[in-house]
């Protein structure tokens, strides 16, 4: 069982972000816990392998709230139906005592990741997260240039990133990932090489690199429409992406997925489950769940989600069951995102023009497997189209 928990709250909207968030000065912790734990009551039982708090900004939740969620999510998977209802009502002290007596000993999830913004990572918070069971933190660094961070509407400065890493390590959280954004508009004069050097100097064991994209109705989209800045440049995107491959390899990092690189032994187990097509459960507004064939997603807006659950209505906005063709396309796409690539023998007949794609430098054949080169990852969508458009789907 892999569980994703979406925490939608942010203190402000970053200039490029179109995620499902609720900008709040005060985090409605009790309402949020009640809603998510009520949604969790409907889940099947099973051992929890990984839990991932994503957002939004999960680090805005109090450490107590994170501890409560972890306790209940780990425990609920093992709690008999008869006691599940009381778990949701845990805020009442006597109910808490009651459920604690009835609980069976849970197996702690192997990997518990918390996405955090650097300004929320204090030594006290880090210690409380560790005590609650968080053993991996994904830190939204984005850049080490204060001008760039301001332009992005980030609420931290570069100095906070190092302080946050220090606090996490001091609390015993050694598995730390940094997020960085590349391919910024030229006029920002962002020095990508310097940012990568600064990130590596902090010795993270995982890096996620995302190219800037312009999403509709974001502040960035509006700036571009009125000519105040330029859309990211494709050439810059490719240059910076390929440079990151060379720079990170020199420090022992391996890109194990199109946007993610790690030192040996530090791959994200939660995200790897998505990429290998495993089932997962999403809780919270806008969260997606997948059972192997059907994908469901929750109402996007926090208020709509909260109201639906409070009124006893379904929080599911919609669902889709993949056709055989979509499943094949998705299988090829997910496999090629990863460094493991795709077993060539599983491609449907007639075989697509593999030799031409290898010759173009987009694919490499290693044993029985087809793997993307960094240049191939740059054009993953068209590569997947090439590999699937020539085939007749096997039922
Ligand atoms: S902190 Fe993350 S989720 Fe929140 S606005 Fe910024 S990019 Fe979006």
Summarize this entry quickly:
With 395 residues, the protein is of the alpha/beta class. It is 40% helix and 19% strand. Strand 7, helix 8 and strand 8 form a beta-alpha-beta unit.
Please explain how this structure is put together.
The chain is α/β, with parallel strands linked by helices. The protein contains 16 helices and 17 strands. It is globular and about 55 Å long. About 7% of the residues have low confidence. Bound molecules: iron/sulfur cluster.
What distance lies between the first and last C-alpha atoms, to the nearest angstrom?
27 Å
Radius of gyration: 22 Å
The rough form would be described as globular
* Count of DSSP H/I helices: 16
Indicate the percent of residues in helices.
40-55%
Q: For the residues shown, what is the average pLDDT?
A: 89
Number of strands: 17
Bound molecules: iron/sulfur cluster
Strand order, main sheet: write it out.
9-10-8-7-6-5-4-1-11
By secondary-structure content and strand pairing, the structural class works out as alpha/beta
Poorly predicted parts: 78-105
**What portion of residues belong to β-strands?**
15-25%
Q: Report on the biggest sheet.
A: 9 strands, mixed
């Amino acid at each position: 069982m892999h569980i994703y928990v979406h925490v939608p709250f942010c203190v402000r909207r970053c200039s490029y972000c179109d995620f499902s968030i609720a900008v709040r000065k005060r985090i409605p912790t009790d309402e949020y816990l009640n809603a998510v734990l009520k949604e969790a009551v409907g889940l099947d039982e099973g051992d929890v392998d990984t839990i991932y708090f994503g957002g939004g900004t999960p680090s805005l939740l109090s450490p107590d709230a994170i501890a409560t969620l972890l306790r209940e999510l780990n425990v609920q998977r093992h709690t008999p139906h008869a006691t599940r209802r009381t778990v949701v009502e845990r805020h009442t002290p006597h109910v808490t005592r009651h459920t604690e007596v009835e609980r069976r000993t849970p197996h702690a999830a192997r990997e518990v990741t918390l996405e955090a913004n650097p300004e929320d990572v204090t030594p006290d918070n880090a210690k409380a997260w560790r005590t609650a069971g968080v053993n991996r933190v994904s830190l939204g660094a984005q850049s080490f240039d204060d001008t760039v961070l301001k332009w992005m509407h980030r609420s931290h400065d570069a100095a906070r990133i190092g302080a946050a890493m220090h606090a996490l390590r001091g609390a015993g959280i050694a598995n730390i990932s940094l997020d960085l954004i590349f391919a910024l508009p030229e006029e920002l004069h962002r020095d990508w090489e310097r940012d990568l050097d600064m990130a590596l100097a902090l010795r993270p064991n995982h890096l996620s690199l995302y190219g800037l994209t312009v999403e509709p109705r974001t502040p960035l989209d509006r700036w571009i429409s009125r000519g105040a800045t330029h859309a990211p440049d494709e050439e810059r995107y490719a240059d910076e992406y390929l440079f990151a491959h060379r720079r990170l390899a020199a420090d022992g990092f391996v890109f194990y997925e199109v946007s993610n690189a790690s030192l040996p032994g530090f791959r994200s187990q939660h995200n790897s489950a998505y990429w290998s097509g495993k089932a997962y459960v999403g809780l919270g507004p806008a969260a997606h769940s997948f059972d192997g064939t059907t994908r469901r997603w929750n109402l996007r807006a926090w208020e709509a989600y909260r109201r639906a659950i409070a009124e006893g209505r379904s929080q599911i906005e919609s669902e889709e069951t993949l056709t055989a063709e979509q499943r094949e396309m998705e299988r090829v796409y997910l496999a090629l995102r990863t460094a493991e690539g795709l077993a060539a023998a599983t491609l449907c007949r007639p075989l697509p023009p593999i030799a031409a794609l290898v010759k173009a430098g987009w694919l490499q054949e290693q044993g029985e497997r087809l793997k993307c080169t960094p240049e191939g990852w740059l054009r993953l969508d068209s590569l997947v189209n090439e590999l699937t458009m020539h085939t007749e789907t096997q039922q």
